[in-house]
Amino acid sequence: MPTSPDSPTGSGRVGVPVVRLWYGVNELLAFLLELAALACLGWWGFTAGDGVGRHLLLGVGTPLVAVVAWGLFAAPRARLRPPLPGVLAVKAVVLGGGAAALYGVGHAVAAVAVAAVVVVNTAVAELFRQSPDTSRRGRAAGG
Predict the structure, then answer these.
(1) Model's pTM, two decimal places?
(2) CA 45 to CA 66: how far, in whole Å?
(3) What confidence tens digit (pLDDT) does each residue in 70-81 have?
(4) 110 part of a folded domain
(5) Into how many domains does the chain fold?
């Protein structure tokens, strides 16, 4: 009896195409969260401190530091790829910093929501990383 790609297989497991679909959706969400964190860091920086110079320095410098840290340690092709706990620490600082920045500009409820989505997204990404159905594909794609 054939099984549909979007239904459980005869063994009770979800078909590989469905797993890959959710893997892709989770990776897209992760990318959007990264962009949102940079935007929130910039938003916070442009509103923090006194004077135009400080606004510019924090508004441009804070996301720039986050991009450099991400590129060095957390990106799929990072130049200095630490073990998983180190990568997760960098992600926590950058993505958590985005949520904290959102809180800093006066959006506490949105900050908590973003933080919750970041935690769930990271946990699901870790589950996919350990899954044999997506691990080779994810590594090949740089994930």
Answers:
(1) 0.77
(2) 12
(3) 999 999 888 898
(4) yes
(5) 1
